[in-house]
UniProtKB/TrEMBL annotation:
Pfam families: GLGE_C, GlgE_dom_N_S
Gene3D superfamilies: Glycosidases, Golgi alpha-mannosidase II, Immunoglobulins, Phosphotransferase system, lactose/cellobiose-type IIA subunit
Protein encoded by which gene: glgE
Enzyme Commission no: 2.4.99.16
UniProt keyword Glycosyltransferase, yes or no: yes
Residues flagged as site, Transition state stabilizer: D477
PANTHER family listed in its UniProt record: ALPHA-1,4-GLUCAN:MALTOSE-1-PHOSPHATE MALTOSYLTRANSFERASE, GLYCOSYL HYDROLASE FAMILY 13 CATALYTIC DOMAIN-CONTAINING PROTEIN
Name assigned to this protein: Alpha-1,4-glucan:maltose-1-phosphate maltosyltransferase
Amino acid sequence: MFRTEVKVGRIPVTGVQPVVNCGAVPAKALIGEDIPVRATVFREGHDRLGATAVLYGPDGAEVQRTRMTEGAPGLDEFLATLRPAVVGPHTFTIEGWSDPYATWHHAATVKIEAGVDVELMLAEGGALFRQAAADPDRSEADRAVLARAVRGLEDTTRDTQERLVAAEDPDLADVLAARPIREFVSPSPAYPLDVQRAMAGRGAWYEFFPRSEGAVYDPESGTWASGTFTTAAGRLPAVAEMGFDVIYLPPVHPIGRAHRKGPNNALEAGPHDPGSPWAIGSPEGGHDAIHPDLGTAEEFAGFVERAAGLGLEVALDLALQCSPDHPWVAEHPEWFTTRVDGTIAYAENPPKKYQDIYPLNFDNDPRGLRRAVLRVVELWIARGVKIFRVDNPHTKPLWFWEWLIAKVHRSHPDVVFLAEAFTRPAMMHALGRAGFQQSYSYFTWRSTRDEIAEYLHEVTAETPAFYRPNFFVNTPDILTEFLQFGGPAAFKIRAVLAALSNPMWGMYAGFELFEHVARPGAEEYIDNEKYEYRPRDFAGAEARGASLAPYITRLNRIRRAHPAFQDLQNLVLHPADNDGILTFSKSRRHLPDGQYRAPAGIALPVFPGVPDAAALTESLPGRADTVIVVLNCDPLAAREATVSLNLAALDLDPADLDSEGRFEVEDLITGARWRWGADNYVRLDPAVEPAHVLKVVRGS
């Protein structure tokens, strides 16, 4: 005799999301983030059912219970939003259940209208509400509402329709919405949700080379004096004033002499050329050392402290590669790849060659090498670094990253790793599953309206559970043709798009100065800062009106003032009848609707360093913050279009609408106000202003 084990509940729950690798890997989440959850919930027959999403905190206690709503008709899809309020490992389940009230009400409405089983249907309703009132967890107020419904159903002095209306009382609807009558409750398995601090998935990054900040050229000797951590700290107030949250530094370690590259990646370097910071290691030390030209460990600590005082976190490059002069080459030749001629293999990405860099080989002595890397990471954590931008992680084995990130997080759960991986999607996604909280992305090369829209849908709706992109508009290695030939408008367009479509964006210094000249035949800057000093006159450019810094400041202030911009998965695309016009909206309710149970002493977060958002929350409790962005993606021509809005996605309340069903919007760039509706004419000239950033003005 065979024994069959039943694997489904009484009410089947399938297709739960967000779930990564069948729950073997936690889905990603941020503190205070709205996490869309969904599931397919169905049953036999025609009885009605419901579903509930339940969130459990790090201690295993239930912290949020949200009734799910049905998605597209006929697909048995149920949707809800969870909002974790503390950092730590969470779990969530989806409960499917039979809804006897909805089943009864549908049958009673149809039968009573047809004159079939009238008294029986009314009696069954009364019995249902009596049973609900007997629930010991219901309040006396709830019981009173249920008892009133019973009396109404059983009052034979009223006509039939009046008796049925007693089961449709608004107070009864509120009672059943807050605590529905549920039968055959069938929970899904518990799925993990890794809730991390805000900077794991939010923030604006600014990259600069500290050696260029304060660098001085001596024309008599033809030599440079390097900038230092002390002189570089002088740039921090301006970066903070622009509204950035993270200051990212390329490697700050000693640079090798062997095969040092000269200007513009020349194979021969002059005696005073500084070399690439990514060619790490010299007799002065390796990954644990600081380049003597930049200063001492104490001066680095002063830089970190100055940044923190301005509200900036320091991110440091973690580049696991060595110059031929790195101490590891002599001490641990087994950590590298030796060719048949006895030489150590340098880095190559044909036709590119990096003779000044030796890649690490993780197969010869994995235990020894991983211990050495862990020691380096922990050293820099002790020096105040909590964010690491990891160079080329896709050239190292995935098992190593899974091990390293998990090992670091056991002792330092607030440390963030950004994957600098421009490679195939499978590897980029796998790095996210291995533990990287964020990654560089293909955003940099998406320039047409349709390319951008397709990519935004992918990263906001398809992959956020395991892959969170950081939208960098440029890097020292990447100067796209869009920026090379699009003029100043191209820089505005990319800044608006990166800053407002994604809670994470970044830029490399010089973007605000419209630097756009590429090395011939390459997609990187001419006179590249990777190989030489490049001090810039930021203040002079701004005084001449030749800087994008004021515009970037405006964008970052808009981001901070509007919580809607702090989430990834709340982006909705809207159509326009011109292929150059991109439209999207983002919306977020400031406070939960009463379904959240915060742990003792824990309040729902706003966002660190965002006082405007806190004020907005207090002024509009329970209301939505909704912003609509309309962007001309063409830097060379004015575009006109009719923008058709999905009004349901804008979270509009009746008080927001006038008698014609229109609502007021305010342009956060220009201050202009208009009345908008479902269809709206726009004309955007990139030479004047390429974007509308429209706040929905809420009614009283």
